[in-house]
Amino acid sequence: MREPAFMIAAPGSGSGKTLITCGMLSLLKKKGYKPRAFKCGPDYIDPMFHKKVLGIPSRNLDTFFTGKDMTRALYQQPEESYTHDISVIEGVMGLYDGLGGIKEEGSSYDLACKLRIPIILVVDSHGMSRSIIPLISGFLRYDREHLIKGVIFNKMSEKVYKTISPLVESELGVIPIGYIPVMKEIKVDSRHLGLKSPDEIRGLRESFDILAKTMDKTLQLDKLKELSSMAENLSRYKYDIKDVSGGKKIRIGIAKDAAFSFFYEDNLRALKAAGAELVPFSPIHDDILPDNLSGLIFYGGYPELYLRELSANLNMINSIRDAVKGGMPVIAECGGFMYMHDAITGSDGIDYKMCGIVHGKCCNMGKLVRFGYVNIREKNSKFLGKSEVIKGHEFHYYDSSDNGISCIVEKPVSGNSWDEVKVGQVSWMGFPHIYYPSNPEYVYHFIEVAKKYQEG
Question: Which residue intervals define the domain CobB/CobQ-like glutamine amidotransferase in the entry (predicted)?
Fold first, then answer.
């Protein structure tokens, strides 16, 4: 028998998926369950809410990145030092919104189909009553696999719920799980097209506790548990990363603080499985790099919010510059790539000096420069096999005066492409966020060159 699982999805962004998912996870914990969470799509922020605020393991699953078999294999991987008894998957955007806004691939629905899990549709019901029925009806008609099993009505009063829920069940055959009233005291602020990170928002844990207490009164958890048991059995899928370290762990320094906080958990797992010992350090707070490193990784985040602190830490900047110029392998993507530059221009118009490894400057362009999924292929094979592709995505308002020309980066739907990324034999630096399980050769190469560096 398969473990219980369900997806929380919605007709569109802004319907309350993240808040309701966090409230649901908090409620399940309080009821004695051991939930784990997943986020559909490439978003970094929502898993932070699951992990940092609620203490629940959370990973990303993305059918564009990994297709059916690999996605199932990643889903079936156990959590580290945690035994779960139910899985909660938070959807992305609207239920059927996939690649390019026109494809099913990459959508929440595509993921639910590949995992064979029931969907709970969250409907923002503010200002609606009977009109909710044709809205839900349309989503049900589009559901060819009949995975939508239940509905939660967000921003609905108890009075309206008692009137409308019997009609929804009798006319549509879908189960009303409950409602959530308007709760003005609970709000999660956003930046750009995403939420602010948990560390920037005060009182989050308390807000989720309040939400969980309300949901305990307004949702029928027994019905939700019953629907979650409808998750279909899957065959076992294999996902293996080989250890290329030669038996001795390779110490890889990984920048990790308020400025650099965007991580894919399965990327970190792939590095460790390939033989890395991940050693966190803070470019903001630490004086120099940790001892005995054989490689460096700088992932994304919001370095633009900490330019003064990053620029003032000259000892760390010099330590990083000396290591990289001395041949230490390095990966730097998006915010980490920006940190490698000579300077970043802040919102105050000041150019803040950074590591000086990439001889250029990053500036806020006042608009989204690039957004969405990409396929990346090297012009000259170094990290990847010849003509091989690794998948990723871009999301940045800043641009560089030197983005590199080592790779051909292509949009998967339109086919539009451009030159980008700076790749050397031991370095990969550019704006795209890379998803390692889409091509583990990337990991193998990095660990192998780090091993050579370690051996001198």
Answer: 251-398
Q: Answer yes or no: 334 catalytic.
A: yes
Radius of gyration of the chain (CA): 23
Q: How far is CA 446 from the centre of its chain?
A: 22
Q: Which tokens belong to 311?
A: 């620029």
- What's phi and psi for 29, nearest 5 deg? -60, -45
364 residue type, one letter:
N
Could you give the dihedral angle defined by the CA atoms of residues 271, 276, 280 and 286, in that order, rounded to the nearest 10 degrees? -130
The whole-angstrom separation of Cα 98 and Cα 100 is 6
Among 347, 337, 355, 342, CA closest to 396: 337
Residue 249: count other Cβ atoms within 10 Å of its Cβ. Answer: 15
Q: Is 377 exposed, middle or buried (0-12, 13-18, 19+ CB in 10 A)?
A: middle
- pTM of the predicted model, to two decimals? 0.93
Percent of the chain residues topping a pLDDT of 70: 96
Q: What's the DSSP call for residue 224?
A: H
Strand partners, 278: 252
Higher pLDDT, 447 or 203: 447
Give tens-digit pLDDT for 57-68.
Answer: 999 999 999 999
Q: Give pLDDT, residue 453.
A: 98
Identify whether the C-beta of residue 281 lies closer than 8 Å to the C-beta of residue 256.
yes
User: What is the distance in angstroms between the CA of the first residue and the CA of the last residue of the chain?
Assistant: 52
Neighbours of 454 (CB within 10 A): 19
3-state secondary structure of 144: coil
| Closest to 174 (Cα-Cα) out of 213, 196, 148 | 148
Which residue ranges form the domains of the chain, and what is each CATH number?
Answer: 5-228 (3.40.50.300), 250-455 (3.40.50.880)
Residues 6+ apart with CB under 8 A from 86: 3, 4, 5, 28, 33, 34, 35, 36, 228
pLDDT in tens, 9-51: 999 988 889 889 999 999 999 999 999 999 999 998 888 878 8
The letter for the amino acid at 24 is M
Sheet holding 422-423, edge to edge: 276-281, 250-255, 295-298, 330-333, 427-430, 422-423
Per annotation, catalytic residue among 22, 40, 113, 334: 334
pLDDT at 193: 42
CA 360 – CA 338 distance, rounded (Å)? 9
Contact 406, 422 (CB under 8 A): yes
